[in-house]
Amino acid sequence: MKILVLNCGSSSIKYQLINTETKQEMAVGIVERIGASDAFLKHKAFDKEKIQIDGEVLNHSTAIEYVIAVLLHPNYGVLKNIKEIDAVGHRVVHGAETFSGSVRITDEVIKALKDNIELAPLHNPPNIAGIEAVSEHLPDVIQCGVFDTAFHMTMPPHAYLYGIPYKLYEKYKIRRYGFHGTSHRYVSERAAALMKKPITELKIITAHLGNGASMAAILNGKSIDTTMGMTPLEGLLMGTRCGDLDPNLPLFIMEKEDLNLKEMATLLNKHSGVVGLAGLTNDMRDIEKAVEEGHERATVTLDAYNYKIKKYIGAYAAALGGVDALVFTGGVGENSPLTRRESCSGLEFMGIKLDPKKNENAKGECDISTSDSKVKVFKIPTNEELVIALDTEEIVNSVIKKKK
Amino acid sequence: MAEEKLKLTDLTKKVTKKEDGERIDKVGIIGAGVMGQGIAQSIAAKGVDVIVVEKDEPSLKSSIQNLTKTMENEIARWSLTKSELKAIMAKIKWSLKIEDVKDCDLIIEAIEENIDVKVKIFKELEELAKPHTIFVSNTSTLSLTKIGEKIKRRDRFIGMHFIQPVPKIPIVELGKEVSTSEKTVNRIKEFLKKIGKRPIEVYEYPGFITTRVMMPMINEAVHILMEGLADAKEIDCAMKFGFNFKMGPLEMADAMGLDDVLSWMKQLWNALGEPQFRPCPLIRKLVREGKLGKKVGEGIYKYDAQGKILI
User: Fold this and answer.
1) Which residue of A has its CA nearest to B18?
2) Which of A127, A147, A167 is the last residue in one of the domains?
3) Chain B CB contacts of A36 below 8 Å
4) Is the pLDDT of residue B4 over 70?
5) Cα A36 vs. chain centroid, distance in angstroms?
6) Domain tally, chain A
7) Structure confidence by residue, pLDDT tens digits, B217-261
8) Of A49, A53, A271, the CB nearest to B11
9) Nearest-10 crossing angle of helices B258-272, B210-226
């Protein structure tokens, strides 16, 4: 099947056309600056040169129209007929408590997404706009939604409830949801495959470390805890987000620095984490370079970053009652041997033994632990788009079956 | 990357550009004072092109510096990021020539509260602006109808009263004059939504809501001070904590500038003739003495170099 995978943001749409038989992308691209007269589309077909096309893009609907047009283009495209698109899979950020798995998008699903806007005010509206745009231009094509939160819906109440008045959970659905679910799910399944064991018999800790970062405790294939909470601000120290902190801090800082709600949110989301602590950059590669040059605050920042990961490895080992595998993924997780080494250091007592050589030279999917390590440690590149495509394919197949 | 310049419209062979008179892509601002700078920042922050016109080179230079400084201060207090500052400044063009706003879909005047000067500017703009362009006055105390009477495009003329500090205040008072068309009101409402401001619709009447309520309150607070009922700190403290205001009225008057407060009071006094708008003699005295408030380091209070009240 040929599945168009879309990630619709407020002013951009990322797309990939994936062939599920070969599991390869046929084309990838992005439309940026939607709503502006100086918008552009960057596109690359698998066998062709990358191109950029400029122009005005009024809204998500025109953006989708252009995406379809470029996929069909005789020179830059990969499709001869619009009917070759078998289905469209959307990355949807917040499924709240309504969605615990990927679903076919129907009017009821759109209504539920609209009901959940309050939980993801920045992300769900453009996701909905993308879905509506596809309905307009590909009315007969099945659309599916794959949620960032869905994989964590298996968390038990003791993991997802906050220690605040229960009424607030009932009134506003305030609880922990977790994100990066598609990635945690994919890499944990890959780890089980590499171990040649059924995932239903494994205890796995996954660390998705990018500019945003989260970890998950996965018991027998189900997420039982994750570091992000009601919003992606909780948990690990991230590129620009603070991660866990004493909840009194925002109140204290707002009063001392005379900040309003919006300003406080900017401080915690954009000026904190690695960039706030080191005062340099949010890019871990630059932080590592600064550490080599002896930059003191970069050193403490990197230590804090790795320490938080280690702390959660310990916590999740306890939550799972042991660990069979630890997986690193995401930009930093896949590319920083240093972070993998430091966050695993001193954990030999619990059976985590990293092979320094394998760790340094890790390429693609690989085991980076020693052969006698009780816990297998993997580096696995994530592929959320592929999961979205495969989930969509599965839903389409079941729809076809039902029709028969 | 391929060499040839590709256009998105070539892909679909369809033109999807909005009609002139529909969208607001470019905004002209006449006057680069604190108000003009704040309006420019708020609009540019949402990705809309802005051109700011000032009358002379030194004023223009200092406006650019001041706006940069204001935003740098916001970065220092973590409410803005460096890349946001860069993106905002990239969207603002600065000019000394009023002709440069001729392509704008919306032109906002943010100059002194003087009806003759405002009318003169709008008459000049009428000669060069596109037919669908909306003219906006930022006045809060002058009669919009009186300005509207003097210009031809009355249906495309409206009042937008931004409040300082513009990037932080989420409301704008939208003042219709008698001839403002519904289409104009709707275009402006859509635009305000885009820049994240909630419109407060007000019928043309000097002072709108905000100025009309705040000025007599400030005036009364200065009367209390003048009569010796309490000192400034006590008056501000009473109002701040008694009514949950963020700032006391005297502190607020200093922040606005006592010269501006006096000029607004005079306008309201002239236009409405009610006794509560008669400026308190102490305001007049302080303005005469050049004690104009926070901006000069002294008004009702004295300030240190960082703008903090000296006790």
Assistant:
1) A58
2) A147
3) 47
4) no
5) 27
6) 2
7) 999 999 999 999 999 999 999 999 999 998 999 999 999 899 999
8) A53
9) 110
Helix (H), strand (E) at residue B140: none
Write out residues in chain A with pLDDT < 50, as ranges: none
First to last CA, chain B: 64
Strand (E) positions, chain B? 6-7, 26-30, 49-53, 92-95, 106-109, 134-137, 157-162, 171-176, 198-203
* Interface residue A114 vs chain B (CB under 8 A): no
Take residue B29 and report the two structure tokens written for it: 């601002």
Give the tens place of pLDDT for each residue, B188-208.
999 999 899 999 998 878 888
Domain limits at A132?
2-147
Cis peptide before B165 (omega within 30 of 0): yes
- Chain-chain contact of A270 with B6 (C-beta, under 8 angstroms): no
First-to-last C-alpha distance (Å) of chain A: 18
> Is the pLDDT confidence value at B3 over 50?
no
Q: Kindly state whether residues A118 and A247 are assigned to the same domain.
A: no
- CATH number of A34's domain: 3.30.420.40
In this structure, the answer to whether residues A45 and A115 fall within a common structural domain is yes
Chain B residues in contact with A241 by the CB 8 A cut-off are none
Cβ distance of A53 and B77 shorter than 8 Å: no
Q: Is the ipTM of this complex over 0.95?
A: no
Touching check for A262 and chain B: CB below 8 Å?
yes
Residues recorded for chain B: 311
Q: What is the chain B residue with the closest CA to A240?
A: B81
Nearest by CB to B8, from A41, A270, A271: name it: A41
Q: Which residues of A are catalytic?
A: 148
Find the residue in B nearest to A263 (Cα). Answer: B79
